[in-house]
Amino acid sequence: MPALSSEARAIALLALAAFVSASAFRICDPMLPQLAAEFGTTTGQAARAVTAFAVAYGVLQMFFGPLGDRYGKYRVVSVATFACALGSAGAVMAGSLDVLVFCRVLSGAAGAGIVPLSMAWIGDNVPYERRQATLARFLTGTILGMSAGQLAGGLFADTVGWRWAFAALVCGYLAVGVLLLMEVRRQRASGLGSVDPGAARQGFVAQARLVLGTPWARVVLATVFVEGLLVFGALAFAPSYLHERFGISLTAAGALVAVYAVGGLIYTVVAGRILKRLGERGLAVAGGLVLGVAFLSYLLGPVWMWSLLASVLAGFGYYLLHATLQTNATQMVPSARGTAVAWFASCLFMGQAAGVALAGAVVDEIGAPALFGGSAVMLPLLGAFFARALKARPRVGVV
Q: Which keywords appear in this protein's UniProt record, sorted alphabetically (predicted)?
């Protein structure tokens, strides 16, 4: 029981770090109109604050796998949280959009290792028979963080100002960083924080070749990239769309989209039963279809209350599809799990970055309805594609 208690504490702290990191990712979404007004630009251009974070977050994640193997995954996560605090502190004082974008790049780069290395640490330390349930509990930190970011961004923008949102992130990162550092010291004292010397000698290029040389890994990585592009490219503009279409406040618009987290939490409760009933292929198909209905609801809902249903469906549908991808990611290259999961997370967030950049152009040139309509059509097709790929996948041994 003492070992289980230590494990539960360590995972809870990782979930807290993921919560703050996910909050930082989504916190700019509802404040885009205010950023555009303050810096004298369009909403699409202001979205660079979202894109910059996502690009840095996505690119740097692929380098954190070998770094975590060399210095210890938990230790690297703790250091990353303090570096994120520095980037967010810079955003508080940003005097121009370019400076804000630069600070978001720093925060995204520093935070890139938090989620993938947390997942890899769980893969290293939790037996396979308990791993899926443990990952689901860890996932709640990310789900709630994304919701909190959406809500806090709109709330601060409507009240004391958007800079205070970044100040809140600084406080969150510092508090979690201290707790993580204390846990690193506890693990070191009990001999749990040792690094595998063999793994530490493996360089980035060798591990990347191993992952990218695996055909099934390439399928999973490509699918999660497109998933991030289609889902989060549209969701980033949902608060602005609701604010402009229905004349509601940014706080209300951010809160409506934040209900997305409810759908994700519903998934964590019913995941086991749905998996038994539908199987992995059924989950992928169902996820794509539910996401399609969600974005149609955003597009066609005659009143703002429809967006409540849309957000719940978006969260539920996303995790139906994404959890299936994530489970496959932890086993697609067992001999290089840290690097494989890091590349998986990198592709997800690079997809988000590409999606927000593309969505910004679509919104500025065509309009938000085209954005939501496109996602509503393509996401069911993506779910069907991955379900078909699952049927032909190679069977990888459990590690």
A: Cell membrane, Membrane, Transmembrane, Transmembrane helix, Transport
Residue 178 burial (CB count, 10 A): 13
Read off the pLDDT of residues 191-206 as tens digits, 9 standing for 90 and up: 665 555 544 455 667 7
Confidence tier at 128 by pLDDT (50, 70, 90): low
In angstroms, the CA 107 to CA 151 distance is 20
Q: Where are the beta strands (DSSP E) in 82-150?
A: none
| Mean pLDDT, rounded, for 161-175 | 92
For the segment 10-68, what is each residue's pLDDT rounded down to a tens digit? Answer: 889 999 999 999 898 888 888 888 888 888 888 778 888 888 887 788 778 777 877 77
Q: Which of 19, 151, 3, 150 is nearest to 81 (CA)?
A: 19
**In whole angstroms, what separates CA 159 from the centre of its chain?**
27
**Sequence-ordered list of residues with C-beta below 8 angstroms from that of 257, at least 6 positions apart, any chain:** 29, 30, 150, 235, 238, 239, 242, 307, 311
Q: How far apart are CA 371 and CA 233, in angstroms?
A: 8
Q: Which residues, 6 or more positions from 368, have their beta carbon under 8 angstroms from its beta carbon?
A: 237, 240, 241, 244, 245
Nearest to 107 by CA among 166, 150, 161: 166
pLDDT, one tens digit per residue, over 139-150 is: 878 878 877 887
CA torsion through residues 312, 230, 133, 54, sign:
negative
Structure tokens at 36: 């555009």
CA-based diameter of the chain, in Å?
60
- For the entire predicted model, the pTM comes to 0.72
Q: Which two tokens stand for residue 316?
A: 């539920």
CA 20/CA 144 separation, integer angstroms: 9
Determine contact, residues 394/216, Cβ cutoff 8 Å.
Answer: yes
Residue type, 277: R
Contact 45, 98 (CB under 8 A): no
CA 89, distance to chain mean position in Å, is 22
